[in-house]
């Protein structure tokens, strides 16, 4: 991992082979730009996201991965208001969410670096994913979760052998509590760790292959911390540098109206989100008031010519129902892309002529406590 270096917001560089989750400036880390790969470098014998392992930083392209078969999720077509949309069904990943992509790569790197005990904070999906992959890697996992987290997500993590601690307060309170313990246990936060984004970026390679080695006109993702925004920006950016595509798709973002700091910052032309008080939302996976990588997320949206929209709370459960009646049982966090698509169509941001891919990030089975009213 020494061939590439990590960079913090101040521009300082760090060896990538040393366990580190943030820069000395207190901000997040990113990798130096990678060149990307073309179709000839895909390992077609591997039926998981590791078929694109040549796009990962060395030595991840060569060492044995910690894998549960993540990736290679379906891209299904559904029609909304006359627009055919490709739905990337990430609920088909091993633990039921897209987080498996990033956690698989992060845990592979941590195992290679000799880490045997980690701390994570999560509203649910990230924690259950870390629990599963740490179990596969024989790494001891300690996970702090909000006390209001879906019981299904907590049960899953416990069965994987993780040590779970419920923390009262907001999602931000949980993150602050975890950072406060980072001196005693390695903090493997999926929101902070740079290797997590290296796994998330592989969804871009997969969408490209799904579409016959073409890029869509736009990718629509729900955003809380914004890892899918950054992963798509990185992956499609690499494909462009490799000459595999001519342009990076527009990145379109959906957030619940009850917690939409990225939407607000885009509308106000700000370079970072501002501290605000938000209401609770059933789209719990996107209820993050202060994303760690807010500056980078906002810049990625703008660099691709994208935008962000807020979905009213009363449209979230109907969206779950609409998708379920097409055969897809998706949690409210993911289902918000359906009303977002309609908003974007009405605003002229997308048209029937565009190839649009929307990412369904997690399974409805994760949110049973929110969906029992039907």
TrEMBL record:
Keywords: Lyase, Pyridoxal phosphate. PROSITE patterns: DEHYDRATASE_SER_THR. InterPro entries: Ser/Thr_Dehydratase, Ser/Thr_deHydtase_PyrdxlP-BS, TrpB-like_PALP, TrpB-like_PALP_sf. Pfam families: PALP. Residues 1-11 have a biased composition (Basic and acidic residues). One of its GO terms (molecular function) is L-serine ammonia-lyase activity. Residues 1-25 are annotated as: Disordered. Its cofactor is pyridoxal 5'-phosphate. GO terms for biological process: isoleucine biosynthetic process; L-serine catabolic process; L-threonine catabolic process. It comes from the Bacteria. PANTHER family: L-THREONINE DEHYDRATASE CATABOLIC TDCB, THREONINE DEHYDRATASE, MITOCHONDRIAL-RELATED. This is Pyridoxal-5'-phosphate-dependent protein subunit beta.
């Amino acid at each position: 991992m020494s061939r590439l270096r990590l960079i913090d917001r101040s521009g300082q560089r760090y060896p990538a082979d040393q366990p580190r989750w943030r820069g000395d400036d207190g901000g997040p880390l990113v990798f130096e730009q990678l060149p990307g790969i073309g179709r000839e470098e895909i390992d077609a014998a591997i039926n998981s996201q590791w078929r694109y392992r040549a796009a990962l930083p060395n030595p991840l392209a060569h060492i044995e991965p910690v894998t549960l078969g993540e990736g290679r999720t379906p891209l299904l077509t559904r029609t909304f208001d006359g627009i055919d949309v490709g739905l990337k069904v990430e609920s088909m990943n091993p633990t039921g969410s897209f987080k498996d992509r990033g956690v698989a790569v992060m845990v592979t790197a941590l195992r290679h670096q000799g880490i045997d005990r980690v701390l994570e904070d999560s509203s649910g999906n990230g924690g259950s994913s870390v629990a599963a992959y740490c179990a596969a890697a024989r790494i001891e996992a300690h996970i702090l979760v909000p006390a209001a987290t879906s019981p299904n997500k907590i049960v899953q993590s416990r069965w994987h052998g993780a040590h779970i601690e419920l923390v009262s307060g907001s999602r931000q309170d949980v993150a602050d509590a975890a950072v406060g313990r980072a001196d005693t246990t390695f903090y493997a936060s999926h929101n902070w760790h740079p290797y997590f984004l290296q796994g998330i970026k592989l969804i871009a390679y997969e969408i490209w292959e799904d579409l016959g080695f073409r890029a869509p006109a736009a990718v629509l993702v729900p955003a809380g911390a914004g890892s899918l925004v950054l992963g798509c920006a990185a992956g499609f950016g690499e494909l462009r540098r490799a000459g595999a595509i001519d342009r990076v798709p527009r990145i379109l973002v959906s957030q619940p109206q009850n917690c939409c700091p990225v939407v607000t910052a885009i509308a106000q032309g700000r370079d970072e989100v501002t501290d605000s008080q938000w209401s609770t939302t059933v789209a719990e996976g996107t209820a993050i008031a202060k994303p760690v990588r807010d500056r980078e997320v906002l810049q990625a949206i703008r660099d691709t010519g994208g935008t962000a929209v807020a979905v009213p709370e009363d449209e979230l459960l109907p969206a779950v129902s609409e998708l379920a009646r097409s055969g897809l049982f998706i949690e409210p966090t993911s289902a918000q892309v359906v009303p977002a698509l309609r908003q974007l169509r009405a605003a002229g941001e997308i048209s029937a002529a565009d190839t649009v891919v929307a990412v369904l990030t997690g399974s409805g089975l994760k949110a049973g406590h929110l969906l029992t009213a039907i």
